[in-house]
Give the backbone structure.
Amino acid sequence: MSIPGAASPLFLATTAGAAGGFEISRSIRINDDDTAYFNRTPSSGSNRKTWTWSAWIKRGKISSEACIFTAGSGTANTIRFNGNDTMKVNAGSDGSVETVAVFRDPSAWYSIIVVLDTTQATASDRLKIYVNSVLQAVTGTYPTQNSDGSYNEASVHYLGRQVHNTANLFDGCLAEINFVDGSALDPTSFGETDDNGVWQGIDTAGLSFGTNGFRLKFA
């Protein structure tokens, strides 16, 4: 699976061999020195208890806080890298978890999948972070059952920056971003392991994205 970058082709895997042969053909390069980001405001609110977010991410800088996807008219919800290179997700109104693992390879493409489902009775099922299809061990506090987060409310959502200011801008490359409104999906909805044991993206065109969901192919 190759992803052409701004200047030259980048490769998620040098030994492609996915069963379906799907190729991610485009990425977007965000330079924090340019204060670059995307924003979108849904016309109406939707499911704030259950959603899935997926993206391929290549960090341009390490050891710096970088907001990837944020939302919230009041309390901001964020998917971000911390300054210590862990990944932290604030997704419910009162929940925040952080990975034990750190992600410090600026040459690597990471498949990041975040799943929120606060309707679940088991706390650890309410917020999950997967990296390259592997469920991450986390520390922190899970959202309370049936709590509403800020994603999918009718307020501005940002890709590449914090909600309330332009601090902690993301720097790096993003590709094949999917946001599924109303469904808690497994990693297999977004990727598969190829014949060489490498996690690869698959075509998500058949997913039901819901009211405020979207797919960004940067094509």
About this structure: Residues 77 and 200 are 28 Å apart (CA to CA). Residues 1-18 have pLDDT under 50 and may be disordered.
